[in-house]
């Protein structure tokens, strides 16, 4: 299996060759040259597997240059009940991503039972172990540069803290994450972790990561690695739980299900798209946004119009305060029939601050063939959904999951099971839950007092040169 760039001007490489990096050298994103195809017999074989067996079966199709015994060991070390231990009392932590039935044909797919209480742990714990394995094999080190709106950062730092040969430089939007998210990251005192709070929004931080990734000489000299979902391995790891969710709520491969995905950078739902392209019987992929509704606008109109920092709102589902959805390029590459020249032309407009309209050449008409539908939410709807979910099902959900559920309820078809991806646990957004329910969500004993711990972070402007210098200063031997 080789990986190619959406911009078509980089050499095709294997999984381990692209593992540590982010963007391809031509500025594009990697995708498999061809998606592996699963037959009905394959699906029957996968049905009933536990998470580890399923993850190994699917990842061995995508990471086929890792010897099977090594991949097996990495997967077994990653997907353990004691790592994904925050399952609800009525759930079995051994399931790793258990489903929670709300009513007939309506489920939560619990993805946030890992160490940092967000779905990012599902991929990031694997990346931590994969990075360690590949770096040891190559005798190399890496300096990870990442951007976070609240969850990628802590998931990456918990996965990489104390790992030999790895330093993490994590950019976050200053004062725009929840108190819990901020404390989760900034209270880490590990010497290999550097938190940089950037004056700006998440997109400013993500732009810096991309600018550094596009500077080939700096990237090579300073061994820059990536853990954002521009890194293919993040998406690959997330493909697995779409299969797990599908098998959990169906009895035969003739049944279809839909997934509602709270979306920002389009990484999570892109993994659903990949699962569908591999042959998983998915009916709809529901893209749910918050007030930052660039993706909803696209799926409704065909116009992709990323917004600038001034028009990116700070909301009560802050991890989705994103206006430039990195992984959207992966989908558009498939939509154009993998026409890299077309993708280059579209993104040359985006990279200059512009927009594009896929109605112009008839491409938008084909979007429905990929199962995408969309909707958006806002603060009032989020509060109401949290209240109604508590009242009707006795389940507390976080603000991002509430956006997903709100849109799912609008678009679902009664006969088709709908799985709403639970992308974070409510305790991460205590103030919003307090506002919605009049009381705080339950907090595990191990996380009491998190916000009172001493914090270590730098505040910097969104200045690429200054960030590069910071990395150089903190990696000199
Ligand atoms: C809690 C939460 N929900 C949803 C999202 C959106 O996921 P994606 O960026 O993969 O679309 C994120 C972060 O991106 C998140 O942290
Ligand atoms: N929501 C994310 C931001 C997007 O990051 P990605 O790594 O998934 O691209 C966050 O919480 O940091």
UniProtKB/TrEMBL annotation:
All copies of domain Threonine synthase N-terminal, residue ranges: 2-79
What EC number(s) is this enzyme filed under?
4.2.3.1
Name the Gene Ontology molecular function terms of this record. Answer: pyridoxal phosphate binding; threonine synthase activity
Checking PROSITE patterns in the record gives:
DEHYDRATASE_SER_THR
- Pathway(s) this gene product operates in, as recorded in its UniProt entry: Amino-acid biosynthesis; L-threonine biosynthesis; L-threonine from L-aspartate: step 5/5
Under InterPro entries, the record lists: Ser/Thr_deHydtase_PyrdxlP-BS (IPR000634), Thr_synth_N (IPR029144), Thr_synth_N_sf (IPR037158), Thr_synthase-like (IPR004450), Threonine_Synthase (IPR051166), TrpB-like_PALP (IPR001926), TrpB-like_PALP_sf (IPR036052)
Instruction: Give the sites modified to N6-(pyridoxal phosphate)lysine.
Output: 120
Q: Alphabetically list the UniProt keywords.
A: Amino-acid biosynthesis, Lyase, Pyridoxal phosphate, Threonine biosynthesis
Reaction(s) catalyzed by this protein? O-phospho-L-homoserine + H2O = L-threonine + phosphate
The answer to whether keyword Amino-acid biosynthesis applies is yes
Q: Residues in domain Tryptophan synthase beta chain-like PALP? A: 102-338
List cofactor names only: pyridoxal 5'-phosphate
GO terms, biological process: threonine biosynthetic process
**Source organism's superkingdom?**
Bacteria
Q: Which family does it belong to?
A: Belongs to the threonine synthase family.
NCBIfam families in UniProt: thrC
Protein name (Swiss-Prot/TrEMBL): Threonine synthase
